[in-house]
Design a protein that fits this description.
124 residues, alpha/beta, Rossmann fold, 2 domains, two-stranded parallel ribbon, two-stranded parallel sheet
Amino acid sequence: MEEMHSDLRQEERKQVLRKFENGQVQILVATDILSRGIDVDGIQLVINYDMPPDPEDYIHRIGRTARADAAGTAISFITRRNRHHLERVERLIERKIHVLVLPQVIQEMPKPPRVKRPSMRAKR
């Protein structure tokens, strides 16, 4: 697994992309830096942790899975606050996108307890 974002130097980004293209890296976690301008065959899954406000950006993100008539899957996490972004994408592509709701049991899970960290002050 590798990461790709704008904090990497250009040479580091090129190296990561080469590894991904030649199969040395199977999972690439990336920002929108890779949503346009790359042409890598064989991408089967794109996961969006957010829905971009611009539907064209969404199309470019998920388009990584549809090279050379290949099929792929896109999974996007949507909150109530960004549901309208999904609706804009649906209007653009003129079709409904299948939505799965998190099971109620997951939504109702208790938050993990806060862990008290030991003080860094020297004990006397």
